[in-house]
Design a protein that fits this description.
The protein is of the alpha+beta class. The chain has a single domain (about 1-95), classed as Ribosome maturation protein SBDS, N-terminal domain (Hypothetical 12.0 Kda Protein In Nam8-gar1 Intergenic Region, Chain: A), CATH 3.30.1250.10. About 30% of the residues lie in helices and about 25% in strands. It has four helices and seven strands; from the N terminus they run βββααββααββ. Strands 5-4-3-2-6 form a five-stranded antiparallel sheet, with helices on one face. It has a two-stranded antiparallel sheet with strand order 1-7. The longest helix has 11 residues, at about 80-90.
Length: about 110
């Protein structure tokens, strides 16, 4: 049974000390939010998590951003304010994820293919 098929939409922010990534719903909703700030952030972002890639670009390993890295880059450790700055100044990127085939019943033992 194929799983994990879909588009991953994210905003990439190249900072002075680190690179930051947040996941968003779509480019359309980000553009609407940039013009109309009355749209709630919960409709724009796909989870209120900020990730850091340790200067490895948008494709690097995603770790949770620490409060000190947010403070160093954005001047605040308030995650909502950092999300807003990333949405305002970041670049949108979308990737298509490949489908994966996983075992459906682990009690039957390993699948032989």
């Amino acid at each position: 049974m194929p799983r994990a098929v879909g588009e991953n939409s994210k905003m990439f922010y190249k900072g002075a000390s680190d690179d930051f990534v947040i996941f968003v719903d779509s480019n359309d909703i980000v553009n609407k939010w940039r013009k109309d700030r009355s749209i709630p952030l919960s409709d724009v972002v796909d989870g209120f998590k900020i990730f850091v890639t340790h200067k490895h670009g948008a494709q690097g390993v995603l770790d949770n951003a620490s409060k000190s890295s947010l403070q160093n880059e954005f001047g605040t450790d308030n995650e909502d304010e950092c999300l807003i700055k990333i949405l305002e100044n970041g670049e949108f990127q979308a990737t298509q994820s490949r489908e994966r085939q996983d075992d459906t019943n682990f009690r039957n033992g390993p699948a032989l293919r």
